[in-house]
């Protein structure tokens, strides 16, 4: 009954937000101040000088977590620490289908961030472009409780969203986030603000960010943060939001070429305004390009040994932006130590699909669901 009442209250909140959503006005820095509001700008939070600002590196992977890609994740990330002796972390934007939730639990317990990438990951761009708030709630808002339940991780550690194919849906996804308490979106590329890069900001006021895959939000939506996906520049000068969308890149086996390619994009941030540097990629692309695989490891080793660069998860970036401190103060902070959770692996299936004539099998950390979990029934009740 409590779950049903919660759903009803959330739907009511959606209706209220939609009906009363004002258009965003140009940002007024007098009225928009940290920790809860920030204009879209390339200015460093807190007015810090670049050489006094931590350079954050965001390594993210999209889609399902399973026995195929966990091998690379373990090889690349296990026991990795930054120069301040705190654990280095990646962010995983997870889809539901074909995900092994026992491995999601493993990644969480290794100190990585688990974020949301939708339940269905529909291949239709129009589906995401036209999605309303209720659709976003069923696809992503409900996924928060789904991944927490089946991976047995605290629901309040799930903060972030990346929309499938980076297809924006106007105000809808941000309204859903504001209503369901999600912290940040990392779906919105910028090709305009590369040098200097665009820092994270809120949507209390109108965004000045370029809209690469419309529709982009236009309303005033306090609460969620935007972590702009500052595009890389490929070998022919073309922008690419994710590494695997860079059309002109080094040969797959060219480790030195890949390393130089990564560094030239990183140095634009590090030698500039130190906006967070994103290494956004799908695991399969790293796996099929061995040069990239080894170049990425070299790059992360370099980052982990720099005194002013830190490989962190996306939530840690928004936390810092809300309370910016100098790199020396940041280095002295206590390391985060998330509460570890147990997982008693349970193999479930066959579970009938609600949308197709097929069966699914699941590896989870809880009791088996009655049917295969999906949109409108995220827990398979």
TrEMBL record:
The signal sequence is 1-19
Which keywords label this protein? Answer: Signal
Report the domain of life of the source organism: Eukaryota
Name the Gene Ontology molecular function terms of this record.
hydrolase activity, acting on carbon-nitrogen (but not peptide) bonds
Per the UniProt entry, what are the Gene Ontology biological process annotations, in alphabetical order? carbohydrate metabolic process
Q: Which residues cross the membrane?
A: none
Question: Where is each NodB homology domain found?
Answer: 52-171
Record's protein name: Jg7868 protein
Species of origin? Pararge aegeria aegeria
Q: What lineage is on file?
A: Eukaryota, Metazoa, Ecdysozoa, Arthropoda, Hexapoda
């Amino acid at each position: 009954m409590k779950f049903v009442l919660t759903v009803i209250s959330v739907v009511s909140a959606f209706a209220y937000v939609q009906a009363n959503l004002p258009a965003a006005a140009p940002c007024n820095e007098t009225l928009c101040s940290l920790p809860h509001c920030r204009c879209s700008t390339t200015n460093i939070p807190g007015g810090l000088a670049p050489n006094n600002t931590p350079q954050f590196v965001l390594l993210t992977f999209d889609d399902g977590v399973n026995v195929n890609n966990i091998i690379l994740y373990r090889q690349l990330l296990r026991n990795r620490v930054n120069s301040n002796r705190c654990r280095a972390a990646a962010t995983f934007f997870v889809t539901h289908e074909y995900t092994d939730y026992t491995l999601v639990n493993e990644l969480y317990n290794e100190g990585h961030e688990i974020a949301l990438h939708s339940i269905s990951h529909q291949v239709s761009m129009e589906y995401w472009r036209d999605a309303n708030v209720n659709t976003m709630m069923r696809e992503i808002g409900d996924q928060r409780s789904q991944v927490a339940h089946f991976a047995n991780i605290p629901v309040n550690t799930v903060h972030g969203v990346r929309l499938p194919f980076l297809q924006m849906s106007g105000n809808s996804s941000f309204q859903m986030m504001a209503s369901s308490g999600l912290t940040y979106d990392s779906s919105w590329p910028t090709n305009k603000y590369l040098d200097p890069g665009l820092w994270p900001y809120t949507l209390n006021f109108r965004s000045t960010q370029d809209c690469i895959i419309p529709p982009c939000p236009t309303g005033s939506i306090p609460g969620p943060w935007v972590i702009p996906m500052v595009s890389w520049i490929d070998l022919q000068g073309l922008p690419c939001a994710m590494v695997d969308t860079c059309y002109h890149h080094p040969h797959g086996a060219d480790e030195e070429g890949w390393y130089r390619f990564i560094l030239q994009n990183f140095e634009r941030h590090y030698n500039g305004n130190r906006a967070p540097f994103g290494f956004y990629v799908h695991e399969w692309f790293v796996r099929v390009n061995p040069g990239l695989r080894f170049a990425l490891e070299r790059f992360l080793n370099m980052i982990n040994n720099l005194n002013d660069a830190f490989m962190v998860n996306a939530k840690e970036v928004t936390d810092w932006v809300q309370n910016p401190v100098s790199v020396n103060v940041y280095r002295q902070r206590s390391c985060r130590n998330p509460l570890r959770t147990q997982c008693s692996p349970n193999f479930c299936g066959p579970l009938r699909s609600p949308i197709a004539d097929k069966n699914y099998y699941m590896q989870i950390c809880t009791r088996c669901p009655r049917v295969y979990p999906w949109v409108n029934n995220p827990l398979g009740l």
